[in-house]
Amino acid sequence: MQQRTRKKRYGKYIFRWCMTLLILGLLIFGSVCGLRLRHFYKAINEEIPAEKPDLSEFPVQGIDISRYQGDIDWEVLSKEDHVQFAFIKATEGSTYQDDLFATNWEEAEQAGVFVGAYHFFRFESDGKEQAENFIATVPKLENTLPPVVDVEIYDVEEIPQPEAAREEIREMLELLEEYYGVKPILYTNPSTYMDYLMGHHWGYKIWMSNPYCEPIIDWTFWQYSFEGTLQGFAQDDIPVDLNVYNGSRKQFLKEFSLQEFA
User: Fold this and answer.
1) Are strands 221-228 and 205-209 parallel, antiparallel or unpaired?
2) pLDDT per residue over 94-136, tens digit each?
3) Residues near 170 by Cβ (< 8 Å), separated by ≥ 6?
4) Closest CA to 127 of 99, 158, 169
5) Beta strands in the chain (DSSP E)
6) Beta pairing partners, 91
7) pLDDT tens-place string over residues 132-167
């Protein structure tokens, strides 16, 4: 009888301690998120300067480009510290192909830049057709970054319903993974993430666009600026997006099974 009473007592103590630790954990998590959200909204309202990554903490830097940047001298651009990797626009929707994709892909690799291709997702097309467009455009090669699906709300006549949009996005992601043999990356921004992706598509690495502060969620790439100015572009006044990887060079190579260029 005493042994049973003792066990009950211990059970109660353990339960109380677990609940206390859980509540403390939630409070700490809430405080951190609250501070980050406060920083985010202050930066949006220009009450404080936008946050930039500490490049000593995030040494792997890269860019993302499309035909908008025009002709590029990749030999010159690759000498910039900000260009260890480049995500290059390949396709959009079910029919569009970026006419500079193949050139940029080939010349960037020749210059020793790790490349990946991205697709701008259009809500007017179904996921299967968009996957087919990307697969027909982007080669399946080793030593490259995973394909990226760019999901963001744009100027569209009818705002897509989240459930229907998620199904089309999921179909495209699964088809790309099946063909390329690697999980794609999801590019998005805070508002689209909250409305369409949060709580779904877990298991996919996130490339978050946030020019105001470091993303609150667990991120793999952070697009922190739309206004980079680098050498190597034919038109000096055209800005380029700047990004960092969340880790060291060694972690970057290991995570994406990359080999250093000879």
Assistant:
1) parallel
2) 999 999 999 999 999 999 999 999 999 999 999 999 999 999 9
3) 127, 200, 201
4) 169
5) 61-65, 85-92, 96-97, 114-120, 148-150, 185-188, 205-209, 221-228, 240-245
6) 97, 119
7) 999 999 999 999 999 999 999 888 777 789 999 999
**pLDDT at residue 30, as a whole number:** 44
Read off the tokens for 141.
Answer: 């090669």
Phi-psi region of 250 (alpha: psi -120 to 50; beta: other; left: phi over 0): alpha
Tell me, what DSSP letter sits at residue 233?
B
Q: In a 10 Å sphere around its CB, with 0-12 CB exposed, 13-18 middle and 19+ buried, how is residue 225 labelled?
A: buried
Q: Which residue type occupies 185?
A: I
Contact 118, 72 (CB under 8 A): no
How do residues 184-209 score in pLDDT, each as one tens digit?
999 999 999 999 999 886 789 999 99
Q: Global pTM?
A: 0.83
Amino acid identity, position 80: E
Give the dihedral sign, CA 69/138/174/132: positive
Which residues have a catalytic role annotated? 64, 152
Question: What DSSP character marks residue 63?
Answer: E
Q: How does DSSP classify residue 197? A: I
